[in-house]
Structures are given as structure tokens and as C-alpha cells.
Amino acid sequence: MAAALIQAVDDRQPHLLRLPVQQGSASALEEVRYALGSRHPRAGTVVLEAGRWHLRLPELRQLQELLAPLQLDLIRVAGDHPETLVAAAALGLEIDLAVPQPPSPAGAAVAGDLLVHRGTLRSGDHLQAEGSVLLLGDVNPGARISAAGNVLVWGRLRGIAHAGVAGDRNARIVALQLRPLQLRIADMVARGPEGLPPPGLAEQALLVDGEIRIDPAAPDFSG
To answer: What confidence tens digit (pLDDT) does each residue in 86-139 have?
Structure first.
């Protein structure tokens, strides 16, 4: 099944750009070019249904540039791949879960094994996830965030974060500003760095040779 552009019935609604359910050899950009073809959709806004596609920040930016000459403005990305949602948020786009479920804690929703929470965690709060967790907000001092998988924070991490709580030593912790009181990955513990992060880069903590190491991370949180 190929990508499809479903035009809105009126100017008040966005067009829907739907990527194929199964990701084949063609890139997302190629799929969108095919969907547009020789069509001349009415100018307006666009919602991208990405499904399980893993789209990094540069790819989403290329999609925006492809749509712009047609006076189409990408405003929202729906999908269930955590790094796609984070990359979309990095570009200032709205994000939606592809398959919304009844909310978990207040402000949170689940898609597959990803828990997405919108809002800041304040002192005394503890957000837990059975899979990976994506927080669109800050983790203030005195707050905790933990997950069996990865911990992704689109904001400042200044509380306590624990990734791989069930023992996954490949889990990682990523944040725009990684300055926690304490970091845990599986059974390893470390304190956060004190200096400011490199400008324009997120940071990630991961286990390297049995120790927690903090490195710059591209804004798409890939790698």
C-alpha cells in the first residue's frame, strides 16, 4: 500500500498525509512525492500519519520543505514511534499518538509500549512506564521518572531518572538538559554533570563498559 494524500473537505480542516502501514525500501520523502504526484491540493495545513515509521528530525524537515512550495503547512504528526514524536516536537509540531488509549496518570496516554506524558513533573511526582516513556516537559528536583525501557525527556531533567528498571542495560536516558540529582540505568547509578550542555544538542546517558556515560545526542534522539 502506497502513501496517500486525503484532501480536506473544507478549509477549516487539515489535509491528511498517510504513510504506508508497512515500511518498504522507499524513504518517507519518496513516498510523499509519489502521493503528491501531479496533484495540486488546495493550500492549507497537513497532518502526517506516520504510523510505525521512524522519522528523524532531518527527514521531517525535508518533508516540510517538500510541502512548502505547494502552500501546505505540516502542523501535526501522528505516530507510535517515540523518536518520530520527539523529532516532531523538536520542530515545534503538534504530536498525537496514532492509537490513543484511555489515559494512564493524568496527562498521559499509552501507545504500544510507549507512555507519552505531557506536562512537568514536580517534587513528589513519580511517573513510571512498563515500556519506554516520553515526557514533554521538565522533571523538577524531587520528582522521579522511571521506565523498563528508555527515558526520553523533551525538557530539563533535574530530578531522578531510572531507565532499564527491569535490568535492560541497553536502555538510555535522553533529555534536552541532563542535570539530574541521580541517574540509574539497570543496576548502575551515577550523578548528573554540573556544567551546561553543548548548545543546540540534547544529551544522552548510556552504559559503556559498565559505567554510565553522558554524551551529546542529536536532536532526533537517534543513534
So the answer is: 788 777 888 776 544 333 444 444 444 788 888 899 999 999 999 999 888 899
- Helices in the chain by DSSP H: which ranges? 28-36, 57-67, 82-90
Q: How far is the C-alpha of 135 from the C-alpha of 102, rounded, in Å?
A: 17
| Residue 103, domain member (yes or no) | no
Contact in structure between 123 and 141 (CB atoms under 8 Å): yes
At 93-102, the pLDDT tens digits run: 887 765 443 3
Q: In this structure, are 79 and 23 located in the same domain?
A: yes
CA angle, corner 218, sides to 152 and 89, nearest 5? 55
Examine the domain organization and report whether 201 and 138 are in the same domain: yes
β-partners of residue 73 are 45
Instruction: Please report, to the nearest 10 degrees, the dihedral formed by the alpha carbons of residues 190, 116, 16, 27 taken in order.
Output: 30
**C-alpha grid cell for residue 202?**
540534547
* 3-state SS assignment for residue 70: helix
